[in-house]
Amino acid sequence: MRVFVVSDMEGVSGVAKWEQVSGGEPLYEEARKLYTEEINAAVRGAKAAGATEIVVMDCHGAGKGWDFNSLVPELLDPDCEWVVQNEWTEYTEVLEQGCDAALFVAMHAKAGTPLGVMSHTISGREYHDLRFNGVSVGETGINAALCGTWSCPVVLVTGDDVVCGEATELLGPELLTVAVKQGLGRASARHLPPVRARELIEAAAKEAVEKRDRVQPYDPGKPCEIEADFADAGFVERYRHRQGVEIVDGRTVVSRADDWWAAWRQLYF
Length: 269
Fold this sequence. Notes:
The protein has seven helices and twelve strands. By secondary structure, it is of the alpha/beta class. It has two domains: 2-126 and 137-214, Rossmann fold, CATH 3.40.50.10780; 224-268, no CATH class. The longest helix has 23 residues, at 26-48. The mean pLDDT is 97.
């Protein structure tokens, strides 16, 4: 059984400040250890449920050489492998090979969510909102659509309580979630102790993989229209001559295609 672990950093228990998730900052080193151990908890749970191949993909852009490279390799569970990608959502091999379940660890809420800890979508500086066929989504939705392109269901989401609610609304009530902290604002939260958070993640990962058939892969719909609202016209300008992408107004662009993956590639790559 093949399991894909997709991870971000803002949703880790004990993390609530931007300095903790920015490569090179003094606080970053402790946070990346906390991050790695939450991933390890999900790996242990997946193994206990019978997973024979586990691939971890770090989706956190920490800056510089730490982009998608925030895990601490020497602390990582030896029964998984991990991917360092160059561009976000670039790696799809494990999905193309056929993947039984995806576990999303340490996710954060979408842009514009008041109580979501460090809430943003892709880039807090650029994106105001993202919609798939009219449905507002964050990075959980993007990664779920990526997995769904190859019929892989997302069976677990962990992070703060806000992203857990966001994920359940988008992916359905059969999704398992673990809230490792309560969002009190973009830079404040009430946290579970890391040891307790890891226990809950491990148990939920095991249950989620065992019950993976209850959750359907996420499909935004066919054909697919992706609308992106940007902070200002400067971010829209780069799409002026891109095939398949229409500039709607000074800060909104639309990508249309037969399916989500084609529309996403037009917009993002």
